[in-house]
Every structure is written in structure tokens, then in C-alpha cells.
Amino acid sequence: EPEVTQTPSHQVTQMGQEVILRCVPISNHLYFYWYRQILGQKVEFLVSFYNNEISEKSEIFDDQFSVERPDGSNFTLKIRSTKLEDSAMYFCASRPTTGDYGYTFGSGTRLTVV
Amino acid sequence: DQQVKQNSPSLSVQEGRISILNCDYTNSMFDYFLWYKKYPAEGPTFLISISSIKDKNEDGRFTVFLNKSAKHLSLHIVPSQPGDSAVYFCAGPANAGGTSYGKLTFGQGTILTVHP
Predict the structure, then answer these.
(1) A25 touches chain B (CB under 8 A)
(2) What is the pLDDT of residue B83?
(3) Of B75, B76, B78, B84, which is closest to residue B33 (Cα–Cα)?
(4) What is the distance between the alpha carbons of residues B92 and B90, in angstroms, rounded to a whole number?
(5) What local confidence, expressed as pLDDT, does residue A23 receive?
(6) What is the secondary structure of B19-83 as a DSSP string?
(7) Backbone angles phi, psi at A6, to 5 degrees
(8) Distances (CA, A) of A33 to A76, B30, B55, B89
């Protein structure tokens, strides 16, 4: 069964450092997303990406965050200057079309900012 | 915008019995809801969906019921198995009235424990 692949599974970084979280969505999917879950809290939306541009973003997704689809397969989330409160599980997801409910999530990257 | 709430943080049932997980939502305008299952250290896994034109959808041991007048949906697992022990999330489109680009809003999750 096709999977969404995320790397690394766990990233530890110092406050103020830049991190890049990587995702390989399912190849024929058109919509890509990043979500995060802070320990003990809800899974929350960060950003959606369609047709090579951001289609929607949450208030969490400020200027410190950016996304990119540098080639035909990877989808990355960059945090420019990490803060302690960025520590969370980050999930990448993809979906084939608007009419398909089949969101597929990756296994997540646990980001720990120290 | 849509909000979804799961008011029971945990549920414990005996193997073979029925598990009923509940979810309430705030906005009558929606296209669909989804249920996800999540194991520790893994991403959410899609379980079952229901569209606004239905009041029930069944897939094997899993059935989702939708009560639009009460703005309530529930997931029934029959019979429950120890392998069903996980966190269950309901989720729906965050933007009132439809799909937009597919932004989802999630409930807080319910931890289901099925005892052998």
C-alpha cells in the first residue's frame, strides 16, 4: 500500500537553529499538508500546498515557517529559527483530489528543541 | 469555522464487547467527517468516513453513525479486539461549508483500551 514517508523520525536541535523536515508524499497525490501535535494537545493544521503554492496556512505558520516542493517527489517544512515551543510531532499528509477523503498521513517527525 | 470535540478522553472495554466513541461538532455545514486511529509513535491512520448525505457507513467491524440534528457522530467497533487499543480521532473539514483545500480540524482524541 502506498505510504507517505517522513524523515528523520526524530530530530533534536538547539533553540535558534534551522531545521528541515522532509516528506515524500504518495506519487499521484495533488494536495499536501503539514500538521503538528504538541504533546497532550490536538493535532493542528499548519499549511496546505497545491499546484506548487501554499493554498492555506494557519496562524501558527508565521514567517519562521516555509514549505517547498523542490523536485517532483519531496515536500519539506523548514523552521528558520526554532523555539522551545516548536517541540512537537510533525505530520505530513497527502490527498489525491478534492473529492477524495483519503488523506494519508506519514509516521511523523518528533522535533525536540533544547 | 468547524470545531469537533471528543469529550471522553478515555474508554475501557472488554474484548468482544462494543466500543462506542463519540464526537460532537459545531457547524452544520460540512461535507464529510473522518475517523482516524493512532498508535504511539505513528501517524494517524484513516479508518472510516461518512458524508453529509448519509447517516450511517459500515466497514467490517467499524460503523460510523451521523446524527445531523444533534450534530453528533459516533464510531462503533464490534466486536472490540485488543489490537484496537489506540487513540481515536474524529476530524472534519475546518472551513464551514465544504472542502476548500482540505484543511482538517481534529478532536482531542479518545484513548481506547480493549482488555483481553
Answers:
(1) no
(2) 96
(3) B75
(4) 7
(5) 97
(6) EEEEEEES-S--SEEEEEEE-TTS--EEEEEEETT-SEEEETTEEEEEETTTTEEEEEESS--GG
(7) -120, 140
(8) 10, 20, 29, 18
Block residue for cell numbers 448525505? B53
Residues whose CB falls within 8 Å of the CB of residue B111, separated by 6 or more in sequence, listed in order: B9, B10, B11, B86, B87
**pLDDT at residue A97 in the model:** 74
Is any Cβ of chain A less than 8 angstroms from the Cβ of B100? yes
Interface test with A, best of B45, B104, B110, B111 (most A CBs within 10 A): B104
The confidence band for A101, taking pLDDT boundaries of 50, 70 and 90, is low
> Which residues on neighbouring strands pair with residue A66, listed in sequence order?
A78
